[in-house]
Amino acid sequence: MWALLKLNPQQQDKYLEYVHERLPDVETYYPQYEKVTRPAKKRTPISLKTAVWPGYIFVVYRITYQRLLLTLPVRAWFIRLAYDRAEDMNNQVSLMPDWVIQGIRRMEANNDLVHQPRKLTPYTRGTDVLVHLPVRTIRATIIRVAGSSALVDTDWSHMRVPLGSVALPPRVE
Questions:
Q1: Cα–Cα dist 47/35, whole Å
Q2: Could you tell me which residues are beta bridge partners of residue 29?
Q3: Which of 35, 53, 65, 107 is within CB 3.0–4.6 Å of 112 for a Cys-Cys bond?
Q4: Which pTM does this prediction carry?
């Protein structure tokens, strides 16, 4: 049976070091996923292993280790889950069967735990667009998109316009 521990998310790795150092036979687990991010001042995105639920760790529960798990230098406490029945209120630890953790591990292996949304924009370099100006609407080609504005090429010059005034022309079929 497994129990769920809550701790400070910044202390998660340090807590695991303490557990594996002092209690090497205690099995711990927390699901992770590949987070794609672009650090400041870097052009290319990188992928980092990140906890799905920062600050939560699953441990194989043994009553003999309950006190030791809570008295490590990093503060932690057991989570009591809402599905536990009222007659079990004297038990301070909610236990989960092995099949729950196996299901989470299966989902983690298939990359089904976290789905990162991709920002898809139709406004890419070379796209022909309509730019709505206060006076009239003109045709242009996108040169570059930066933040909430776009640099476009019109028949007579380049101009920077907000993306809110840019639209794709109607498709002719």
A1: 5
A2: 58
A3: 107
A4: 0.63
